[in-house]
Design a protein that fits this description.
Length: 351
């Protein structure tokens, strides 16, 4: 059942098990407690297109597409500092810019952008008109991608990708965690989880994670009945570590090592190091779960239009075959691979 604007009374935890099967479009984001039936499964996740990874060559599949339109902030910084922006600084710019968009009251901002556009036309200044039109396009695109399609969080796609792991009360390590969304979704599906979020940008802990809505419901499992259950951020056992992944001194103590949008930010000469980060902290029998943005026309357009919000750092768009090959070539067996709305996903284990 799809519901438009909801008239719920404000509450810290507005959704219960009675709401399972529904989806609400709120001002800032979509809530999606719909489960996938066997029939509509294929609409959200397409899995396991490669049979034998050892047979796949780079000649067959080509290399990822590099996004080369950078944000104005990065270009200005580089002009001022007369040097290339370093990755750590670029992430601090990215996280601030991206978080601002999650905080937007989208219908209100759509109205404001349209009003500004009309005003700019009346003033008849081409520069102003162009800028105001760009603002309209950006907010319309954000509305479509995040609030209508739910392409960024994509809970149904992520749940389909994450299901079926053979683990109990897992320890989960999220590398480059930002607001930590996917670790929370995993923790809902695998109750009793102990989650460690790691990001070297302190703003991710103090703001992106801290301000992640307490009232956002995650659909998971009730461990005592095996039935579906709704969880919230404060139901989870989460530690947030602000540090460079390279400094982590954990042993192989995690059942799941997770990353979402990390591998594609490293050119080929560093990919083996990123693969190593995923291996180093895994218990024997543990799982690597990873996603990266898909190389598709829609995504290329998104990163072009949203360049000032998204493009502060090196970024590639890749196919799931390319992503899987990077991990296979770096010593992983690919257990499951596929694509969800805007990301590729895979589940892998060290060989
Ligand atoms: C593209 S973001 C992940 C996408 C995320 N889901 C989001 O919504 O922004 C990657 C994150 O990894 C972090 N990161 C990158 N390199 C890192 C490193 N060496 N150590 C710790 N964190 C790192 C960045 O600060 C950033 O927050």
């Amino acid at each position: 059942m799809l519901r438009e604007q909801t008239m719920r009374t404000p509450s810290e935890k507005p959704y219960t098990e009675e709401d399972i099967g529904t989806s609400d479009q709120l001002k800032h984001y979509r809530v999606d407690l719909r489960q996938l039936s066997e029939k509509n499964y294929n609409k959200f996740v397409t899995l396991n297109t490669v049979r034998d990874w050892s047979q796949l060559s780079w000649e067959d599949i080509g290399k990822p597409y590099e996004v080369k339109t950078y944000s104005k902030d990065r270009l200005n910084w580089e002009k001022q500092n007369q040097t290339e922006m370093d990755p750590h600084t670029s992430w601090t710019y990215f996280n601030q810019a991206f978080h601002e968009w999650f905080s937007k009251d989208v219908p209100l901002e759509q109205q404001v952008a349209k009003q500004n556009f009309l005003t700019s036309i009346k003033r008849f200044k081409p520069g102003q008109i162009k800028e105001a039109l760009h603002d309209v396009v950006q907010i319309q695109l954000w509305n479509y991608v995040h609030r209508i399609q739910d392409g960024i969080w994509d809970p149904r796609g992520k749940r389909a990708l994450f299901e079926g792991l053979d683990i109990n009360k897992p320890r989960i390590l999220f590398l480059g965690a930002a607001e930590g969304y996917e670790a929370m979704q995993l923790a809902a599906m695998y109750p009793g989880a102990e989650v460690v979020l790691v990001d070297y940008d302190a703003y991710c802990k103090t703001t992106r994670f801290q301000e992640f809505p307490e009232s956002y419901p995650f659909l998971g499992e009730n461990p005592s009945t095996g039935q579906p259950k709704v969880y919230y951020k404060d139901d989870f056992d989460i530690e947030y570590v602000v540090d460079d992944i390279r400094n982590l001194d954990y042993g192989p103590t995690f059942d799941i090592v997770l990353s979402v949008g990390l591998l594609e930010h490293f050119p080929d000469e560093y990919k083996h190091e990123v693969a190593d980060w995923h291996r180093r902290f895994l218990k024997p029998g543990g799982y690597v779960v990873m996603t990266t943005p898909r190389a598709q026309m829609k995504s290329k357009l998104y990163y072009h239009i949203m360049a000032d919000v998204m493009n502060h750092t090196y970024r590639e768009l890749m196919t799931v075959e390319q992503m899987g090959k990077y991990m296979y070539d770096n010593g992983f067996d690919i257990l499951r691979h596929g694509y969800i709305k805007v990301h590729n996903g895979l589940v892998a284990q060290p060989r």
